[in-house]
Specification:
Blueprint lengths: L6 E6 L10 H9 L4 E5 L5 H6 L4 H12 L4 E5 L2 E4 L14 H26 L5 E5 L8 H5 L3 E6 L7 H17 L2 E4 L2 H8 L5 E3 L28 E5 L9 H10 L4 E5 L4 H4 L9 E5 L3 H8 L4 E4 L13 H8 L4 E4 L12 E3 L2 H14 L2 H12 L3 H18 L3
Parallel strand pairs: 1-2, 1-5, 2-4, 5-6, 6-7, 7-8, 9-10, 9-12, 10-11, 12-13, 13-14
Antiparallel strand pairs: 3-4
C-alpha cells in the first residue's frame, strides 16, 4: 500500500536540472504520484559562485540568488523545485574534522532556513525528509527541520572518493545512526547501513528502460566495426576508477578474432592506455542516451568489466539492466551486488574466467534466453523500489505506536 497524502521533502546530491539519469529524481517523481513533493536543488557554495562561468543551469541558479526571488518553481501538480537562496561555505578541505563540523553546522542552518521557508510557503505539514546520500549538507537537518520521519538513502559508497572520505569517515556513520530509517539500492550497502542503524532495508533499484527495446527497428550505427567478427561491447563512462583496463587489454590481445567496442567518454588513463594500440579495440566516443540502444542492439555480448574496489563493490549496475532489457548476453565482474543477477548474467573474477564465460555466452545465446533476460530486467521498476521505501515507513510508524 503506497504512502498517500503526505508532504515529502527530497534533498540530495543532484539538482533537478541535472542532465544525467538520477535515482533521486525518479524516486521523487514516484513519490509525487500519491503525495506532495518538494525537490530541493543542491545549494551553491562560495567557490562555485566565484569559479563557475559556463554551466547554464548553475548560472541560472546564480541569477536567482542575486535577484533573491523566484526560488520556488512548480514542476507538476504535486511537485515543486526549490533553488535555495543561501550560500554554503566551501569548507570540505579544512584539515581538521572538528573544525569542519563547526562550519558544516553553519552551512546546515543556512540550508535548513531555505527549506523551512519553502515548506511554510507550501503549507507542508509533518514532513517526511528523504536524503539521497548527502552526508554533509543533510547532517543536522533532522534536528533543524524536525521532520516526522527522516530517511537516509545510500546508493553509492561515497567514502571511496577523497572528497567524501576526508570527513565522511567520521560523519557518515553518525548520520546513518540518527536517521529514523535507512534504505539502500544494493544488499551490500543495506548491510552497511544496518551496521549503524537496525532500521535499514534493501529496496532494490528502479530503471527507466523504455529506450532499451529489442523490438524497435534501429539502423546499425555506421561507426561500428564490420559484422564479420563477434562484438563484445561496453557503453558508459570509461574511467579507471571503475573499469579494469588491464583485463580488457589482455582479453583483446588473447582473442584477435573478437572486436571490442567501447562507447563513452574516456578519462586520461583510458586515453593513454595500450588499448588504443590494439587493432580489434574500437573507441567510439560519447553518444547521446537515445543512441545507446542502437549500439547495444548490435553487440553480441555486453560487458561490465568492473574493478573490485570500495567504489564498485556495492554499486548497483544500471547498465546491466539496460543490456538485459535488450535481451543480450551479459558478461560482468563478480561482486556481492551482481549475485542478484547470477541466474541471468555470466560472472567472472579474472581474465581466464572472462574468456571462458565470453565463449560460453557466444555459444549458447538464443531467443528464449533473450526473452527471460528482458523479463528479469523489466521487473526492476521505480514503482517497486519506492514500494520498498513505503514498506519501511509503514514498519517504522507501526513500531512507534508501541
Amino acid at each position: 500500500m503506497p504512502v498517500q497524502n503526505r508532504d515529502i521533502v527530497v534533498i540530495g546530491l543532484q539538482p533537478w536540472y541535472t542532465p544525467i539519469g538520477s535515482n533521486c529524481k525518479n524516486i521523487a517523481t514516484e513519490f509525487s504520484k500519491h503525495n506532495r513533493v518538494l525537490y530541493v536543488n543542491v545549494p551553491l557554495d562560495r567557490k562555485t559562485i566565484y569559479t563557475e562561468k559556463s554551466d547554464a543551469n548553475i548560472l541560472h541558479h546564480k541569477e536567482r540568488l542575486q535577484a533573491k526571488d523566484n526560488s520556488l518553481v512548480q514542476i507538476s501538480d504535486n511537485m515543486w523545485n526549490l533553488y535555495p537562496l543561501s550560500v554554503m561555505e566551501s569548507v570540505n578541505w579544512l584539515p581538521s574534522t572538528n573544525l569542519f563540523r563547526i562550519f558544516n553546522k553553519i552551512n546546515n542552518r543556512r540550508f535548513a532556513a531555505a527549506i523551512a521557508a519553502a515548506v511554510k510557503s507550501l503549507n507542508f505539514k509533518d514532513i517526511i525528509l528523504f536524503n539521497d546520500n548527502d552526508i554533509f549538507r543533510g547532517y543536522h537537518l533532522k534536528e533543524l527541520l524536525q521532520p516526522d520521519i527522516y530517511i537516509y538513502y545510500s546508493r553509492d559508497y561515497l567514502l571511496a572518493v577523497d572528497y567524501w572520505r576526508k570527513h565522511g569517515q567520521v560523519i557518515e556513520p553518525l548520520h546513518i545512526a540518527k536517521a529514523d530509517i535507512g534504505v539502500a539500492n544494493s544488499k551490500y550497502l543495506a548491510d552497511r547501513l544496518k551496521s549503524y542503524n537496525p532500521n535499514s532495508y534493501y529496496i532494490g533499484q528502479g530503471c527507466e528502460l523504455g529506450l532499451f527495446n529489442p523490438e524497435l527497428t534501429i539502423p546499425r550505427p555506421a561507426d561500428l566495426p564490420p559484422a564479420d567478427k563477434p562484438i563484445l561491447g561496453y557503453v558508459g563512462a570509461l574511467t579507471s576508477l571503475r573499469l579494469d583496463i588491464s583485463l580488457l587489454t589482455e582479453m583483446a590481445r588473447r582473442q584477435a578474432d573478437w572486436n571490442f567496442v567501447l562507447v563513452g567518454p574516456e578519462d586520461e588513463d583510458f586515453k593513454n592506455s595500450a588499448l588504443h594500440g590494439l587493432p580489434n579495440v574500437h573507441f567510439l566516443g560519447r553518444k547521446a542516451m537515445t543512441a545507446l540502444s542502437g549500439y547495444v542492439k548490435y553487440f553480441d555480448v555486453c560487458m561490465n568489466p568492473q574493478l573490485v574496489n570500495d567504489m564498485t563493490v556495492g554499486n548497483y549496475p544500471l547498465k546491466v539492466d539496460e543490456y538485459l532489457a535488450m535481451g543480450k548476453p551479459v558478461l560482468a565482474t563478480a561482486t556481492p551486488t551482481m549475485e542478484l543477477f547470477r541466474e541471468h548474467v555470466y560472472l567472472a573474477a579474472n581474465v581466464n574466467e572472462y574468456m571462458e564465460m565470453a565463449m560460453q555466452a557466444l555459444a549458447e545465446n538464443n531467443a528464449e534466453r533473450a526473452a527471460i533476460r528482458r523479463s528479469f530486467a523489466l521487473s526492476h521498476t521505480w514503482e517497486n523500489s519506492v514500494a520498498g521505501i513505503y514498506e519501511a515507513i509503514d514498519l517504522y510508524e507501526k513500531a512507534r505506536l508501541y
